[in-house]
Specification:
Blueprint: E1 5-10, H1 20-29, E2 35-38, E3 55-58, H2 66-71, E4 75-80, E5 83-88, H3 97-107, E6 113-115, E7 123-127, E8 130-134, E9 148-155, E10 159-166
Parallel strand pairs: 1-2, 2-3, 5-6, 6-8
Antiparallel strand pairs: 1-9, 4-5, 7-8, 9-10
EC number: 3.1.4.-
Protein name: Phosphoesterase
Domain Calcineurin-like phosphoesterase: 6-156
Length: 170
């Protein structure tokens, strides 16, 4: 039987430090995930501290501070089980989803799944045999993105992604 690797994907948190609301939300949403993938615009690298017990893959975005820009790459590839994942924020490819999605094919030609952020709009679809994911803006305390979207990705014999929503209970 093939092991299932569960990855929680978020992006565009735009936090200068982890708030109590953010910590509560990620503990609720990603408790059973083995891996965390952040597609940029953390603002500050400390946003990843809450995931110290998990494997984390992250990139910086155009709204990141110095700590994130110096600590994280603009793009990266990694393996999730037998699958190659391409990860970037997307700002270097354009402002809108269509220009970002047309540009990342050249960046990650061998990827089975491409994950990006920047647009704040959640996407989980198959295009030309690849799984394309944008988790949306995981902002738990913002008028912009309530409920806060994120994606759970399962890797076993195949890749399956699902857009989920965090809604504060209080």
């Amino acid at each position: 039987m093939t092991e299932i690797i569960k990855a929680g994907i978020l992006s565009d948190t735009h936090l200068s430090r982890p708030s109590r609301e953010y910590i509560d939300a990620v503990q609720q949403c990603f408790a059973d995930c083995h891996v965390i993938i952040h597609a940029g615009d953390l603002t500050d690298i400390s946003v990843l501290d809450v995931f110290s017990d998990k494997t984390v893959y992250a990139v910086h975005g155009n709204c990141c501070g110095r700590s994130a820009h110096t600590s994280l790459p603009r793009e990266r590839t990694f393996q999730l089980g037998k699958f190659t994942i391409g990860l970037l924020h997307g700002y270097s490819l354009g402002r809108y989803a269509d220009s970002i999605e047309s540009g990342f094919w050249n960046v990650f030609p061998e990827a089975d799944c491409i994950i990006y952020g920047h647009t704040h709009d959640p996407v989980c679809k198959h295009v030309a045999g690849k799984l394309i994911i944008n988790p949306g803006a995981f902002q738990v305390n913002s008028w912009y993105s309530t409920p806060a979207p994120y994606v759970v990705l399962e890797a076993s014999q195949e890749l399956k992604g699902k857009i989920c929503e965090y809604r504060p209970t209080s």
